[in-house]
């Protein structure tokens, strides 16, 4: 279920996330762990850069889905990495965002709640094609439904390849061939 | 001119603001000024609490105007303080937000750009009435127009009182008598 966030809500969630980081700094300062604080500061800056890279992909709806994912009541935590900043022009943002939203719903329905469920997304984009590597780790209660979802065609120039399936892990990759080449 | 912010834009601005604070921490850490870092952390937590208090006033449009003010291209910087957290039910949020937006526009037109112009807002709310104290300090190029704006009636149960006018300062107060008592 996609939720439209308004300014106050977005700021509230963002403030909550940032304050958690500040509290981590504060806690380590009070223990005089200055080196740990320096590490945390570097981690925060790294994360902010990923967020900024994601925002600059020119896929606003898809980026919003990922950025607000952990604020929705999902049964998994999401993290992401964007390897290269690139202004993507060859992808259908709306289609991708819609697929991502269905992925989140399907995952919620197929995993055990209140477990350490984790979805990592790694995005590699260049001028020719974009690859999204997804890695789920956690407790799947309905693996076959989830794999069936991954077999559904997205559109004519987008392919999904499942690269690993085990008891507690599913890895898959989506790559999109630029439409102008099809 | 009111701007509708979307999720990505709000997050981008919020990230920029928070990263400035993190950079301040980082800079002081690299100088081994640990006590200064502790002060900065406390300041950040205080500011976040003000932001949270403002959000919880039950005046969403007014709160959004203040929270996003410094992201617009105004010729002044805004800060605010909310003395008490209270869920306000006796104020017309839309009217107040509209007046605030006109205040910002009028101020922009009456002050010298690229100067240290500053608008402080202090909000005191209780069950019976809400008082908004505004304090402008900076370079006014058209004081009379600005004072004329403050003389315009807002609505029947909202009063503006100008408490101080000097070369580089204008202080005024808006207070609203609860509508049910009128």
From TrEMBL, chains A, B:
Domain Sporulation initiation phosphotransferase B C-terminal, first and last residues per copy: 59-172
Keyword Metal-binding in annotation: no
InterPro entries: Sig_transdc_His_kin_SpoOB, Spo0B_C_sf, SPOB_a, SpoOB_C
Keyword annotations: Kinase, Phosphoprotein, Transferase
Top-level taxon: Bacteria
Name of the featured protein: Spo0B domain-containing protein
